[in-house]
Amino acid sequence: MFKRHPETLIPLIKELESYIAVRNKRNYLVSTSNIAWQIDHSLKVFNLVSETLVNSNPGLHSSQFNKWRLLCFTLGYFPRNKVKAPKFVRPPEIILIEDLELQLQAAYQNIENIKSAKKYAHFKHFIFGVLHKKRTIRFLQIHTTHHLKIIRDILK
After folding, report:
1. Which residues of the chain have pLDDT under 50?
2. Residue 21: predicted pLDDT
3. Cβ distance 31 to 39 under 8 Å?
4. What is the CATH number of domain 6-155?
5. Dist CA 95 CA 91 (whole Å)
6. Residue 1 has what pLDDT?
7. Given this model, what pLDDT does residue 112 score?
């Protein structure tokens, strides 16, 4: 079973960080986007979700059964090319290394912030519904791993 502690997110962020050096690599057989796009998108999602979780009101948490969440979270896998990233987490045309570094700093800080979030702090996902703290950590693990796999495949 996956550990759902904020510390488990650190190696994923470190791995994203390690790919900045090869950010311009691209492989159209894998993805139309380059590695910088994958890193930037992953960090945007990570930071936005983390901040939403930390700023939520745990007293307003309510969750319902969701078959897609059950399936994806149990498998620990998101299929490729099934969902398009919402506009607010899509990277800009030009991705600056400084922007990636700022987002990385924010991600590390957000991991610390998640540690102090209440058990029923939550985030509402457009497909998976309301995710409490542990489910949000699981979502961040699966989402970041999904994009790390794409990066690794681009580099093959």
Report:
1. 1
2. 97
3. no
4. 1.20.120
5. 7
6. 46
7. 97
pLDDT on residue 41? 98
Please tell me the distance from the alpha carbon of residue 148 to that of residue 43, in angstroms, as a whole number. Answer: 11
Nearest CA-CA partner of 91 in 103, 108, 107, 79: 103
Which residue blocks in 6-96 are alpha helix, DSSP H?
Answer: 10-18, 35-55, 67-75
Structure tokens at 26: 């691209």
10, two tokens: 């650190």
Q: How far is CA 47 from CA 30, 79, 114, in A?
A: 25, 22, 11
Q: How far apart are CA 33 and CA 20, in angstroms?
A: 14
Rounded CA-CA distance 141/132 in Å is 14
Domain residue limits, the chain: 6-155
Q: What is the pTM of this model?
A: 0.94
Shortest CA distance to 121 belongs to which of 70, 44, 73, 52? 52
